[in-house]
Amino acid sequence: MEFSSKLLENAVYEMSQLPGIGKRTALRLVLHLLKQPEERTEHLTHALSKLKNEVNFCKSCHNISDTEICEICANPKRDENLVCVVEDIRDVMAIENTSQYNGLYHVLGGKISPMEGVGPQDLNIVSLINKVKEGKVKELIFALSSTMEGDTTNFYIYRQLEGLEVTTSAIARGISVGDELEYADEVTLGRSILNRVPFENSMKAN
Ligand SMILES: [Zn+2]
């Protein structure tokens, strides 16, 4: 792509670093922004830099939060005996949208993936095991996507829990294998949480 302006080229380059944005789309977005009134682009850059500088992660569940402890963890009406283990905050949002779940979450921040160089130490696993050791959690619900990385992560955590007093379950596979949670419709996802199965059974099914 030949650019008539270095400024334009730089902006397109930065935009194209976003996932799913190719050079052409980047150019379209940059030209669109250029046509907007100045305050539009200022609001956008301001919101992004404020997010990056001020964002907090909940000390308990690692969800993105404006406060030290997120609204879900701080809500006394939620069942703290129940902890749903998810990959990232998009899954929290998807499950919250179902209105079928009243427990807490634990956001791992990814999945174990040797291919991408992500090991257990890169994820929020130690804090999860500690939470179980403290004895507050009665049931852990694995709600990772049913990809190989998701299954590996579930199994790794399951092994870490050996000897600890906690029930483990996995969401029912209403969600087809390989599907990401966030793409499941609310009814299916809600049902698969309510119809969860003991984790051991979910392994045999695979
Ligand atoms: Zn929280």
Describe this structure in words.
- By secondary structure, the chain is an alpha/beta fold.
- It has helices at residues 6-16, 23-35, 38-54, 71-74, 89-98, 126-133, 148-160, 186-194, 199-205, and strands spanning 56-57, 64-65, 79-86, 103-107, 139-142, 167-170, 197-198.
- The protein folds into 2 domains: 6-54, Helicase, Ruva Protein, domain 3, CATH 1.10.8; 67-171, Dna Topoisomerase Vi A Subunit, Chain: A, domain 2 (3-Layer(aba) Sandwich), CATH 3.40.1360.10.
- The strands form 2 sheets. The chain has a 5-stranded mixed beta sheet with strand order 4-3-5-6-7. Strands 1-2 form a two-stranded antiparallel ribbon.
- Helix 1 packs across helix 2 and helix 5 (89-98) packs across helix 8.
- It is built from 9 helices and 7 strands; from the N terminus they run H-H-H-E-E-H-E-H-E-H-E-H-E-H-E-H.
- The radius of gyration is 20 Å and the shape is elongated.
- Bound molecules: zinc ion.
- Zinc ion binds at residues 58, 60-61, 63, 69-70, 72-73.
- A zinc finger (C4-type) spans 58-73.
